[in-house]
Task: inverse folding
């Protein structure tokens, strides 16, 4: 079973993500918001480190991105790929892809933080 994804919305989100990651290091303010799940339970969420990872990737620090959360490199690559393939309006995606990606990301975080 597949679902059709509107790529325009993903492109807009990708541009916002890339611009935010490029600007984040020069903006004043705190280093970020702590993960609520990790703060409450000590267990990291699948997205822990994703902002750091995307920011590192956009600022050409692939090792920093990989250490923070490998999914950040993938997010940047997908965003750039969507911008390069502007002629595509939609894409079919298996319905299990996003839940499977979140499970893999959570397992990575549990291993990374020594929970597993």
Result:
């Amino acid at each position: 079973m597949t679902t059709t994804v509107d790529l325009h919305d993903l492109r807009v989100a990708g541009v916002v993500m890339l611009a935010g990651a490029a600007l984040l290091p020069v903006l004043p303010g705190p280093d970020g918001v702590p993960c609520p799940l990790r703060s409450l339970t000590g267990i990291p969420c699948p997205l822990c480190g994703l902002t750091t990872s995307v920011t590192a990737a956009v600022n050409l620090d692939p090792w920093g991105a990989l250490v923070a959360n490998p999914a950040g490199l993938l997010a940047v690559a997908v965003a750039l790929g969507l911008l390069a393939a502007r002629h595509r309006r939609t894409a079919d995606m298996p319905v299990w892809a996003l839940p499977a990606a979140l499970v893999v990301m959570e397992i990575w975080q549990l291993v990374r933080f020594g929970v597993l």
Remarks:
- The chain has a mean pLDDT of 90.
- The CA atoms of residues 57 and 73 lie 6 Å apart.
